[in-house]
Known about the structure:
mainly alpha; Four Helix Bundle (Hemerythrin (Met), subunit A); 57% helix; DinB/YfiT-like; DinB family protein
Amino acid sequence: MTQDTGDRAAQHPIDGILDILNEAVLGGTPGQGTAFLDGTRADGSGNHGLLATLATVDAVQASHDVNGTSIAGHARHTAFHLEVIVRWERDGDRGPFDWKGSFLPEQVEADEWIAVQTRLKDAYEAVVAFARSRRDAPVDGDVTGGLSGAVAHVAYHLGSIRQMVKVVS
C-alpha cells in the first residue's frame, strides 16, 4: 500500500514505525543519519542502540542497584513489554500482565545476563515479524498504535539504561 507522491512512493506507516524501532534497538545504520540517536560511524562504532548499549556492561554492572532498579531489570521489562505487544496484537491476549514483576529479578549472573539480552533481541524480532505480517492488511490504528507505543517504550528505557550505564561504568 504505497502512494505515488511525485518522485517517490510514500512509505507504509508500519515501515516508518519499524525504522524508528530498529534504530532504538539496533542503533543507526553505519554512516547514515539517524532520527534520534547519536550517529553510528561508518566503521560501526558509536552505536548507541539498546542491544549495543547492553553489550557494554557485564552482569555485575547490569545488576548494580541504581536508585532502586537495575539495568538488568529494565532490560527484562523491555523484553516483556515487546512480548506483550505481540501477545496483545496478534493473539488477543489482554492479560492481566505482571508489569512490576517483569523487572525481576534485577540481579543476574553472567549466563543470565546473556539470556536477558537474547530474550530482548528475540522479542524485538517477534515484534518486527508481526508488524511485517500486517503490511498488506488495511492500516489498523490498534496495530500502528501498539507499534508506536513499543517505540516510545523502548526509547524511554534506552534513555534510562544509558543514564544508568554512566553510574555503573
